[in-house]
Amino acid sequence: MIEFLQQLINGLAQGSIYALIAIGYTMVFGVLRFINFAHGDVYMLGAFAGLYTAPKLLALFGGGPSYAGAALVLVSAMSICAVVGVLIERICYRPLREHPRLTVLITAIGVSLLLESGGQFFFGADPQAFPEIISDSAIELPASWGIFSDLTVTIGQLIVVGSTLVLLTVLRTVVMHTRTGMAMRALSLNPVAASLMGVNIDAILSFTFAIGSAMAGAAGVLTSIQQPSIDPLMGINAGLKAFVAAVLGGIGNIPGAALGGLIIGLLEALVVGYVNPTYRDPLVFAVLILVLLFKPSGLLGKSEREKV
Amino acid sequence: MRMPNPKSILILAVILCAVANLFSSAINPYYYDILISIGINMILAVSLNLVTGYTGQFSLGHAGFMAVGAYFSAWMTLNFGFFLGKSAPATSTVYVAALVAGGLAAALAGLAVGVPSLRLRGDYLAIVTLGFSEIIKGVIQNAEPLGAQRGLGGIVQHTNLFWTFLCVALAVYGILTLVHSTYGSGFLAVRDDEIAAEAMGINTTKYKVLAFVIGAFFAGLAGALYAHFKQFIHPEGFNFLKSVDIVVMVILGGMGSTAGVCLAAVILTILPELLRTVASCHWLPDPLRNLAENRMILYSILLIILMLNRPQGLFGKLNFGSRKQ
């Protein structure tokens, strides 16, 4: 029982990371109807942005691990990733907006490969140690909790889950309660009608990429707090799983992406804990195939009919 | 210009590779290795071209089919290699049977991928094919009889120029005649407009599955050739990046252009070797040499520029036997 709860806690932290990445996939799919393959690599860039900015930003607060410094690192990584995301959209996707989807898809794969191999070129292919931006340690649970006091909860896990909740709340407010968010929803409903109503499509697309990439950047830093070893190819696997999460929740649906991320994270933790760690990756893909076969619209998505 | 007769070309090609094979001992082993790789890559590219180029189903899992063919055929020759005795004709028979069996096993995997793919298109399909190849890799990594994570070694080398290019000729001939036949126009119809094709009474389901099955068969054949040439196979040799290599060949050559795709397979097999030569030139500045070592950077930039400026691929609609327009 305790072991099961422990796996759930571990899965929750990992699931939060997937949820943050999955949001970028789902938002871009919502407005552009295509999968931004390069998204997982933006997450990788977030981790490296954290790696390179952390020493300077932490020095502002005395050099050691500190919460204010960690927050600054997080914000800087998010801004860097937002800029990268906007640039990717401007340079690679915007000229192809009227092209067949296959062309855009291949371009996205090209961008993804470019970020990976460029990362290996500039950052080096070997894994690097992420600096300690907060002092991560297990929290002593009070003995009065009975058997639950045997659970291990780390500060890192709390921070990951907490930051994810905050970011998701902010995102929801932006999408549901601002004019830009309304324009974004209009665009995903019907691009032509939205542009006729005066929505500046280019600006909204840039904004969508900026937000999605910022979330991925945050995920990059948050994941490095828990697993302080980062390499330029870390985005492939995480990106694929987050994509599975987005599909599981219903692609185009933001709460769905968050839900899907959590489910995938929990599922992974349970497989690692109870079955065999080598089955972790195949299982996630099996989930994807099953979802697409039996409920292609995902858990929270609406199915769409194809019209000629 | 119209080809005289596909069959006579096929026979000529077979005779040519049989003759070339006689001189194989005179070829520098390094170049020999490259020649065989060119052949294997041509089969892979041509078979993916049937799925992606002619039928319009984007697949990111071609290396998975290759893995099925490689492992199944290797397992066969390792266990039944001397089933018919140790004489050359006997082992050759087993080898050919293993090649065919590898192809058939991959075709079966292609059927397994093709059926769920019926409900998906475009981006989803790409991810599902990728997922399937990852699952195949995962199964192999956990299968003790196949060497699991250690890889499978001790395979007898049997692939030579003759067998490789015989398979190339068969793949090119088979796929070209298929898509140029009346029956094969269905593939192109599915690619051009699935809904219109369906309205015209074409069984799009059947064509899509068929494309996957035939494409997977030839990919499995290529895998079997590869296993019996390298004598050692490892699950990581059939990963996502291998699939991307094949996709780049098809896109560079021009989707739906068999001749272009073959040409691209040749170029992209030689290119890494050339880049390696560049990288070992000590008089070149270091950044340039590092860049040459990182062929993926060049590939990815090539892909993006190609898609932005020339989505039909370098060689466009160039094809064997096509009239100049």
Stretches of chain A where pLDDT is under 50 for at least 5 consecutive residues are none
Rough outline of chain A = globular
End-to-end separation of chain B in angstroms reads 10 Å
Quaternary state of the chains: heterodimer
Mean pLDDT over the residues of chain B: 83
Largest sheet of chain B: none
Round the mean pLDDT of chain A to the nearest integer and report it.
87
State the helix count of chain A. Answer: 11
What form of chain B results from the Cα inertia axes?
A: globular
Q: What percentage of residues of chain A falls in helices of 4 or more residues?
A: over 70%
Q: Please provide the ordered H/E string of secondary-structure elements of chain B.
A: HHHHHHHHHHHHH
Number of strands of chain B: 0
Approximately how much helix is present in the residues of chain B? over 70%
Q: β content of chain A, as a range?
A: under 5%
For the largest beta-sheet of chain A, the strand count, sense and barrel status come to:
2 strands, antiparallel
